[in-house]
Design a protein that fits this description.
Length: 918
Amino acid sequence: MKTIYLAIQDQAAPRILFGAAILTKALEDQGYRVETSDPWLISNYRAKEGTKIFIGNRQEAEFIRTLEEEEVLCYHTLAPADEGFYLAALPGNLTVISGGSDTGTLYGCQELAAIVREEQALPDRLAFGDAPSFVLRGPALGLQKTKVEPPRRTYEYPVTPARFPWFYDKALWLDFLDMLLEQRCNVIYIWTGHPFSSFVKLDDYPEALEVTEDEFHLNVETFHWLAEEGNKRGIWIVLNFYNIHIPLPFAQKHGLELHQPKPTPLTSDYYQKSISAFVRTFPNVGLMVCLGEALQGQLYGAEWLTETILEGVNNGLKDLQLKEKPPIIIRSHAINAESVMAAALPHYPNLYTEAKFNGESLTTFTPRGRWQSIHNHLSSLETIHMINVHILANLEPFRWGSPSFIQKSMQAATYRLGANGLHLYPLFFWDWPYSPDQATPRLRQFDRDWIWFASWFRYAWNPDRDPKQERRYWVDLLAERYGSKEAGELILTAYEESGECAPKILRRFGITEGNRQTMSLGMTLSQLTNPDRYMPWKELWECQAPQGERLEEYVLKEIQGKPHVGETPADIIAEVERDTEKAVQAIRNASSYVSRNKEEFERIANDVEAIRLMTYSYTYKVRAAINILTYKHTVEGRYLERTDLLESAQTHAEMSLRNYRELTALTDTTYLYANSMQTPQRKVPFPNGETYGHWRDCLPLYEQEYENLTNQVQRLKIGQLPAALRDAGGKIEPYKAAPFTLHSKNAETYTIDKQQYIFNDGDVFIQNYAEELAGLTGIRFSQREASKEGVNLDIELFEKSLILVAYFNSPDSQWLKAPNLEENTHADDRGGLVPILKNGMKVYFYPSLNIHAYTYEAGRHTLVFGKGAYLVVGIIAGEQRPAARDVSHEGVSADTMDWLYSAENIQPERTVQPTGGV
């Protein structure tokens, strides 16, 4: 048995010792006897007979510094820095692992261990250096749930074993941490609403603790253990929290709302002391700060970050002797990141910024437009900028693993966006650690989706690997997993080809790149032909897609004979049908070559088949939509003409439905549900992701849609106009007003009518308004104050009521933005996400307004909507359920085409009751 003498630098950090243990095991597995030795000097190391290995951080190891100074150790690559390392075989039978830091030294040990296993020996010749391209690389996990626990609100979940049993599962954590080390991740982001009330106790605010004493001690012990185990592997634990969320018992004692829109002396003092105590208790844990959402980040973000959060961090670190200050990550969500970072940089050195890569889906590897500009600006600041691969609402629930798509995404993150950090969501975030497959026991996500994690983290380390070599690399991994090179080749092809379908379908036909839409459950004809009804998120096609045309734009150009620009619906239909057929052919051919992990291979094969059925259910329905839109713009109201176009649409719709039925049958036995966030926030294709969480739930509505289409087409063919067209223009009743008292001194009431002024500091007046608003009492205030600072309204209600808020249809910054779930998860807490009256009011010179209805209980309320001008156009009785409509001030129009599928019969009208959700 050959002996190897192993020496480690003096006072080695836990990461270096852990790396040495990895290397020792690899050597012993190859038959070596490893004997530890005291560190050598350059003057005596050759006196030690036999093979020697020295491990050290070159910033601290005297032996490595001397070898460098004497030019015994020279680097043919960049000298190791930060997480870089260099492996060298030197004269005197000495191998050196030189790390740029403790983590770099760990990675050097890991690399040499891999070489030893591959070559089955310690190599005689060795000169290899490497370093990561991305500074932070890791996954995001959620100490969050999707069901609100009243009286707590969104995101508010004290950390307890009953809520999050996986958090306390040390065996699970060790498996996951070891996988992350294998992929050289250096961070885990844990998302919470307000973690401090579960992990720290404050003498000044004992009421803030939200868990029992036993749970508190268990939490502290578990988190200490996790931080220490992560630290050994070079992994930071970074805890995310939202602002300003406060604990329920603290809020109750002090008479406060759980979510605070702006700082107060009390909340600032509580947060500052909480953060200081947390940092002192867990010095190896970083923080990720979401300044938007509950807090009005545009107005108070910089103040809250600098005067409360960073002050608390610095107070907590004051007496600690740390090699590295914890990372503080600023999420650029719903804030002015430029002003916030300018204010923060003088207060703390280790700051990062973060922005979503493709919103809350994966649609393209070339983000562009405004979104690209945001990244470019953030990456130009004196911080490290990260991309956030977030939620993946269009990939759920199927396996997805296209290494080439991911490699191009990481290259774009580097060269197109200027980012050098990765924050990666798992494919099924809200149900961590389990996958959505029907299996007993439940499958773990990091086992099922290993290729998802491995691809992102491989290209976070180095995105510029040779594509041909990369294909060989992934084929070899799959071959080892499934038993043959042939299987590896074909399974990789299936992953690559099927991986193109969901990104292309959503970006060209979808409503949003956010998690408001569960793409795998399909879309209605109304959503394809009348997307404005469903509040489409234009950044989907303007930023998160290649240049191209939406459906109606494409149809109009076809009719007018105009040239097309960029990616068209016809292009996508052809491409995704080609892609999915290649994927299915490959996975079917692979079956005979698979000799290992056959059960998991069958699940992959089922997913590829499911993606094919999903794809065809879309492409045929899109063909139907093209026919319908062509009919709309050809007949121009003469609805009894060109029914041949509708017959063609009916045929395509039948084929779409046939594929959807097969998809439902396949997923009925393979999947528990289609999306991990089963809450009312899921609106597309049907409202409420819990009610419509599986294909079987949606199928009856699609069946009804097809039946309605068929019936309407038959009526038109025999010369009958559908009732929806015959009855257009019926009498509309005004809303029933509710009594209220306005206590604000800076505002006044008025009656909604033509020629009434809408602000008290100008002469802009109402030109026209929806009949429903007639006679209501509006509230007017200063447009200037609202635009520059924001207006708070003090209102007393005497019964449950709906407050009607009108938003100007303009992106200009002077106007208050309508709520949206893409930017604010709380946007639907009081209902009102969707306007009840689109274009419900026209005013002189200014843009038209959409009317939203928010539910408020009886009592006194301070309305704080944020900075930007808006209108309050009435307060109405809460028992009303206003039907949504698009107001035509020149008369009612039927050209939305929704009458053709009787959409109101297949999708319930939006209620305005608060729905909660995440």
